Structure formats: structure tokens, C-alpha cells
């Protein structure tokens, strides 16, 4: 049988181990999170160093070329086991970490210096390999539901072969000792070293495949999640050029994928976004921070829609930003519902007129304008005369119709700059702005009184009603909203006491 030089085979083993360690180190550095690959790289480095030390047998001391070298072999495989445990998210085997290496190192020393026995040293090393490889197989065996299980089977097969070879070697060393020294070239040593070369190469390859199978499965799951997401997802490069849009974004905007790729998100803008918002957005994401906000965008059809967006930078190793990803949700319906709710909160359900709250907000704003422009603001407090008798005589349904008709007539009497509110059952407030003098207010109030006193025809029933109106003017009768309404209310009651169907200033 062909006999190969043992030192040459050891050098080849060390070179393959070094190459494996380099490949695993590069793979380790490419990972964004720790997953055990670093332990594999260090383990292969230990195997490479051990092979180098053994190849120098006879040149350096036995402590280095035998005890340390064999201990490094054991340590290397223990590190690979540790990496496998971390990779599968299993707890470390403490007894292995603190037990096997000291026992093996002591045995190598004892059976070389105190009770020399090559057979026992070989058996100790083989036993350590068998135990560690078995632990690796047991760790990977339960992972049947993982997407990388096929790659795990390949890893288990390689370690099973390694355990089988060294189990046989240890058995033969004990029951059929070979008289040759360890470094002598022979068919036996050639088989041992060649099998070690192939197995170590196989270990490196299968571990790399295992890692890439995980990355591929994660990428596939992530890709499917993004593609099938109901949220609109858009990815741009650092310059803001769109490089990816998912189907949800295409369906939402109405654009084809080809029409969006290569463009910037400005293609969707309605032109309503404040410049300050865009400046804040770019300042945040360029600094590596996420940004959240709302956009009023435009579809290809021209239809406007609201989106809430979360935009975050995509950072590579070292923190360098390579892309930006935006995840957006259509909130048009929510905006419309919120607007309806706000309208209901600010407007009377029966007449559609403003509520007291909205009226007061408008009054505060108009008083502020009047102070700045040195103008006047008037508040008209209107109370219907005889409304209760209408309800009592004809029922509340007809009374409600009457209130709706009064609201219509009030709006018809007012300018676009004026505002009318219903604040009670038959009480109304009118805000009159931008007038020259009290005569113009009196004229407008008279028109309102005439409009209300004109008979109403409600389902064939003719209803006659009048109004008592009190007027307060800023700054003549007050300088804040509560005072203005209070003075107008007092003036209205004065009209009531004087016979109703009239108006009077505070």
C-alpha cells in the first residue's frame, strides 16, 4: 500500500485547517449577531496550530509537539461543540468545557513522561474525539423542524465518520498495538492522516453550508414577509432613489413597479408636506435615527390619501448606512373617521350649527385679531320667543323641524366670516366680525329678527315665532369671551322683560 510522508500530510492538514479557519473567520465577521461561527473559527485555528506543532516532532520538545499539540486538538473540537451549542441556542455543556481538556492533557503528559504508552495516548485522543463528536450529533439531532436541518444532517454525517474512524483507531491501538513510532511513515499512518485531512475539510465545508443555510432561510422568510406584508414597504439607497417596493405599495399607489424603481418618494407627494417636516425627516435618518410621521400622498390616479410612515436607516457592520426602509400604513379611513368625530363634537347634531365650544374658540381668535387690528367684534345672544308652546302644542318632532329651519335662515342672514352656534334648546349665539359701527350690527340683527319672525310652514302647519336678541360688542362691553357672552345674555333677558321680539345692546 502507498506510504506517504507523515510530516507532509500534517503540513497539508495544517494548511487545510488554516484555510478553514480563515473562511470561518470571514464568515464570522460578516454576521450581524453572534451565532457560534466565531467558536468554529477559533476551533479550526487550534487544529491548525496542533498540526503544525506535531509536524515539528523531533525539532521541538515533546511538551509542545505532543502534550500541547494533542490538547489543542481536543480544545479545537470542544470549541466547535461550543459553537454548535450556541448556534442551536442550547446551553453550554459545562462538564465538557471544564472536564475533558484537563483530563486529556494530564493523560497525554502521564503516558508520555511517567508511564510511556503510545497506544493509551492514541486511545485517549480518540476517546475525546468520539465523546465530543457524539455530543455534537446529539445537539443537532433534535433540530428536525429547523429550516437548516438538511445542512445539519451533513454536519452530523461528517462528525459521525470522524468519530467512527477515531473510535476504530483507538480500539486498534489498545487491542493491536503498532510498534511503529507516531511519525514513522506507514500505510496505517497514511490512512489516519488522509482521513483526518478529508474529515477536517468536510467539517469546515459543512459548517459553512450550515451557516449559509440559516442565512438563506432567514432571507427567504424575511423576503416572503416583506412581499406578503399588508403594509406598504419601500427601500431606497442613501440618495433616496427607490430600489424596492412590495406588492402592497404598488397596489396602494396605483403605479407599476417599473414606474417607481429608480424614482424618489417625491413621486407620491401631494405637495402639502411642510418643508420643515422633510428637513426633520432627512436630518433624523441621516443621523442614523428612525423617523415617524404622517404624509398626505397622491396616487397615480390623482387621489389623495394619508399614510403614517416609519422610516429607519439600514446599517451595515460598523454602523455605515447603506439604505433606508419605510413601512407605511394607509390611515385615510382613520383620518376621515376622526374628522367626522371631531365634526360631531364641534357641531350640533340636529341643526349642524357649531357648538358652544367651537363658538368660543372662534370668539377668542376673533378678539385677538380685533386687538391687533383695532377693530370690533359683536356677539348676538338669541332666544326664541314661544318655542316652548310650539313643542307643547305640536310635539317635539315639529319643534325639531322648526329649529332646523331657523338654523337655515340664520345662516342665510350671515356673511361667510360670521359664525352661528346653537348652545341650548332654543338659544343661539352669533359672532359678527369686521363691521364699521354699531349701526351695521343693528341692521344685521334686525334682518335676523325679521327672518325668524317670518311664518314657517311645517308639514302644513303654520308656525309663528319671534326672537329676543342681546348684543355685546368688543371692546365696548368686555375684552374676553366669557364676559362678551355674559353681557349679551344679560341684554337678551332685558329684551324679554321689555316685551320680547326685539334687540338691545348691553
Helix fraction, binned, reads 55-70%
Extended strand count:
12
Mean pLDDT: 85
The best one-word shape is rod-shaped
Helix/strand structural class: alpha+beta
Poorly predicted spans = none
Spatial order of the strands in the main sheet? 2-1-5-4-3
How far apart the termini lie comes to 125 Å
Q: What does the radius of gyration come to?
A: 44 Å
Give the SSE order as H and E letters: HHHHHHHEEHHHEEEHHEHHEEHEEEHE
Biggest sheet statistics? 5 strands, antiparallel
What fraction strand?
15-25%
Number of helices: 16
Tell me what the structure shows:
- By secondary structure, the chain is an alpha+beta fold.
- Helices cover 59% and strands 15% of the residues.
- The protein is built from 16 helices and 12 strands.
- The protein has helices at 6-30, 37-55, 62-87, 94-114, 118-140, 149-175, 187-228, 247-253, 257-260, 275-286, 332-346, 356-373, 387-394, 396-413, 438-453, 481-497; strands at 232-237, 242-245, 291-298, 304-315, 321-330, 377-385, 419-422, 427-433, 456-458, 461-463, 466-474, 503-505.
- A 5-stranded antiparallel β-sheet has the order 2-1-5-4-3, with helices on both faces.
- A hairpin with a 4-residue loop joins strand 1 (232-237) and strand 2.
- Helix 1 (6-30) runs antiparallel to helix 2, helix 1 packs parallel to helix 7 (187-228) and helix 14 packs antiparallel against helix 15 (438-453).
- It is rod-shaped, with a radius of gyration of 44 Å.
- The protein starts with 5 loop residues before the first helix and ends with a strand.
Amino acid at each position: 500500500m502507498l506510504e506517504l510522508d507523515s510530516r507532509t500530510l500534517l503540513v497539508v492538514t495544517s494548511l487545510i485547517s488554516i484555510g478553514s479557519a480563515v473562511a470561518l473567520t470571514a464568515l464570522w465577521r460578516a454576521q450581524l449577531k453572534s451565532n457560534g461561527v466565531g467558536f468554529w473559527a477559533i476551533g479550526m485555528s487550534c487544529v491548525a496550530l496542533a498540526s503544525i506543532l506535531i509536524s515539528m516532532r523531533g525539532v521541538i520538545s515533546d511538551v509542545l509537539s505532543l502534550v500541547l499539540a494533542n490538547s489543542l486538538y481536543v480544545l479545537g473540537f470542544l470549541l466547535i461543540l461550543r459553537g454548535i451549542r450556541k448556534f442551536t441556542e442550547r446551553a453550554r455543556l459545562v462538564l465538557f468545557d471544564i472536564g475533558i481538556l484537563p483530563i486529556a492533557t494530564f493523560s497525554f503528559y502521564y503516558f508520555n513522561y511517567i508511564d510511556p504508552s503510545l497506544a493509551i495516548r492514541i486511545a485517549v485522543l480518540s476517546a475525546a474525539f468520539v465523546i465530543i463528536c457524539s455530543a455534537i450529533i446529539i445537539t443537532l439531532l433534535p433540530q428536525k423542524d429547523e429550516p437548516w436541518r438538511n445542512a445539519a444532517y451533513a454536519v452530523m454525517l461528517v462528525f459521525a465518520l470522524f468519530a467512527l474512524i477515531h473510535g476504530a483507531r483507538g480500539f486498534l491501538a489498545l487491542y493491536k498495538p503498532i510498534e511503529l513510532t507516531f511519525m514513522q511513515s506507514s500505510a496505517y499512518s497514511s490512512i489516519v492522516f488522509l482521513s483526518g485531512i478529508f474529515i477536517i475539510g468536510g467539517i469546515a465545508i459543512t459548517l459553512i453550508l450550515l451557516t449559509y443555510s440559516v442565512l438563506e432561510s432567514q432571507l427567504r422568510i424575511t423576503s416572503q414577509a416583506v412581499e406578503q406584508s399588508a403594509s406598504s414597504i419601500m427601500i431606497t439607497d442613501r440618495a433616496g432613489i427607490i430600489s424596492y417596493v412590495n406588492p402592497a405599495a404598488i397596489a396602494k399607489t396605483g403605479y407599476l413597479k417599473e414606474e417607481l424603481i429608480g424614482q424618489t418618494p417625491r413621486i407620491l407627494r401631494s405637495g402639502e408636506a411642510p418643508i420643515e417636516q422633510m428637513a426633520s425627516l432627512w436630518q433624523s435618518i441621516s443621523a442614523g435615527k428612525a423617523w415617524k410621521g404622517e404624509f398626505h400622498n397622491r396616487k397615480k390616479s390623482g387621489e389623495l390619501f394619508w399614510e403614517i410612515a416609519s422610516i429607519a436607516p439600514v446599517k451595515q457592520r460598523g454602523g455605515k448606512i447603506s439604505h433606508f426602509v419605510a413601512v407605511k400604513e394607509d390611515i385615510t379611513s382613520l383620518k376621515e373617521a376622526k374628522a367626522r368625530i371631531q365634526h360631531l363634537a364641534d357641531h350640533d347634531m340636529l341643526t349642524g350649527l357649531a357648538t358652544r365650544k367651537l363658538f368660543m374658540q372662534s370668539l377668542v381668535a376673533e378678539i385677538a385679531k380685533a386687538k391687533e387690528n383695532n377693530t370690533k367684534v359683536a356677539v348676538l345672544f338669541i332666544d326664541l320667543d314661544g318655542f316652548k308652546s310650539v313643542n307643547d302644542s305640536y310635539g317635539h318632532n315639529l319643534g325639531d323641524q322648526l329649529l332646523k329651519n331657523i338654523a337655515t335662515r340664520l345662516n342665510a342672514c350671515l356673511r361667510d366670516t360670521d359664525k352661528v352656534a346653537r348652545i341650548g334648546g332654543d338659544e343661539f349665539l352669533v359672532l359678527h366680525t369686521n363691521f364699521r359701527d354699531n349701526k351695521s350690527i343693528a341692521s344685521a340683527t334686525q334682518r335676523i329678527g325679521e327672518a325668524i319672525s317670518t311664518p314657517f310652514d311645517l308639514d302644513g302647519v303654520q308656525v309663528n315665532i319671534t326672537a329676543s336678541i342681546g348684543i355685546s360688542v368688543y371692546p365696548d362691553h368686555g375684552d374676553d369671551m366669557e364676559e362678551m357672552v355674559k353681557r349679551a345674555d344679560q341684554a337678551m333677558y332685558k329684551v324679554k322683560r321689555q316685551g320680547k321680539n326685539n334687540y338691545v345692546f348691553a
